[in-house]
Design a protein that fits this description.
The strands form three sheets. Strands 7, 8, 9, 10, 11, 12 and 13 form a seven-stranded mixed β-sheet that branches. The chain has a six-stranded parallel β-sheet with strand order 3-2-1-4-5-6, with helices on both faces. Helix content is 36%, strand content 28%. Strand 4, helix 3 and strand 5 form a beta-alpha-beta unit. It is globular and about 65 Å long. Among the domains are: 153 residues, NAD(P)-binding Rossmann-like Domain (Rossmann fold, 3-Layer(aba) Sandwich), CATH 3.40.50; 64 residues, Alpha-Beta Plaits, CATH 3.30.70. The structure holds NADP nicotinamide-adenine-dinucleotide phosphate. The site of NADP nicotinamide-adenine-dinucleotide phosphate (NAP) has 24 residues, from helix 1. The site of NADP nicotinamide-adenine-dinucleotide phosphate has 24 residues, from helix 1. Its EC number is 1.1.1.3. It comes from Cloacibacterium normanense.
Amino acid sequence: MSKKLTIGLFGYGVVGTGLYDVLHKSKTVDATIKKIVVKHKDKPRNISSEHFHYDKNEILQDEEINLVVELIDDADAAFEIVKTALEKGKAVVSANKKMIAEHFEELYELQKKHQVPFLYEAAVCGSIPIIRNLEEYYNNDFLQSIQGIVNGSTNYILTKTFQDNLSYEEALKEAQEKGYAESNPILDTGGFDARSKLQILLTHSFGITTKPEEVFNVGIQNLGDLEIKYAKEKNLQIKLLAYAQKRNEEEVIALVIPKFVKSTDTFSTVSDVFNGVKVQTAFADKQFFYGRGAGSLPTASAVLSDISAIAYDYRYEYKKIANSENLKLAQDFPLKVLFRHKAKDSQNFENYFEEIEEFYGNREDAYFVGSIRFQQLKDVFTKHQDEVSFVLIDIL
Ligand SMILES: NC(=O)c1ccc[n+]([C@@H]2O[C@H](COP(=O)([O-])OP(=O)(O)OC[C@H]3O[C@@H](n4cnc5c(N)ncnc54)[C@H](OP(=O)(O)O)[C@@H]3O)[C@@H](O)[C@H]2O)c1
């Protein structure tokens, strides 16, 4: 039998308003929103002001509320809210990938200690039910890799660059005008949002827990004309991928990086703000999840699904964490990449590469296509990140 849920909702923005809508349309979930806590008193709202409160304790100290739904845009404040809620034995649903990625270990311990569920399907790929599938379905040794287009705004920018021939700057401006990218877009374009999502995917696919700085991310913010032209001439696209692949029984390769994809690759069909996740297993081969990675109602539908799961006492068991003590992030493996840099610096960069198959240069810029070891790639990127760009061709 499902449990009756009395919800305290934090946040009434894009996702919060969507949740209010979908919850009222759902006939099967026995849950009511008792209170909503937001930040700004004078903001116009589309429902009566009596629903709103401005002090987090209105929800956290309310004994009747047994489920906290955290949908705010401030990761630090969200962590304080979620932590207190779990300590008080309240179930929690959240969509806050940054908060989860930054504080996973503490959140994991809190769940164990207080024996309360904490679900966050909407935090990775909005409406796509990937976490619960990884947790429940791919619960075996045969998962080999998971790759995803997990950030809608960068995918929008790349789609506009490739399909509509906009420059990177024009595409970014359009994404900002449509509300797909923030005024300071670096969290998205720098691959940081994708990194948070990859951290969560790593936990649910391979049982590996990480701190943000342990997962390497290259974004799309430095992509230039040379690599875009290179891709177009070869009928390729560039997609920002979150990438996790088992290298052997002890190591998992994990990184966020732009990658060339062929027109025959399923990822090339993931356009605009859509997301896609490809799972590869030993016996089932490839499987593909596709859907809206953001937006009010699509994201709220994943939050609603978590609420419904909590009503049936579902919780993540994190079985893979216990089974993966010997599994670590791989630190040394070769990758084939296109590496664009200033033409005057070509000689300095040659030594980073194991092999250079192709070289092109004009007066300003140059690129190598060749193989480089992961540590060298990290090193060159860390030292020169404003002047260079990498696009992955393949992991070797
Ligand atoms: N938007 C999406 O499509 C999407 C998709 C997946 C995941 N998410 C995640 O979902 C969460 C919410 O995103 P959103 O797009 O709905 O954000 P949003 O539209 O900016 O709304 C944020 C809400 O949080 C409230 N808020 C901020 N700080 C607060 C605090 N300290 N205490 C109480 N309320 C506070 C704001 O109050 P006021 O209304 O008073 O300003 C607002 O209602 C974020 O973690 C985001 O990463 C969003």
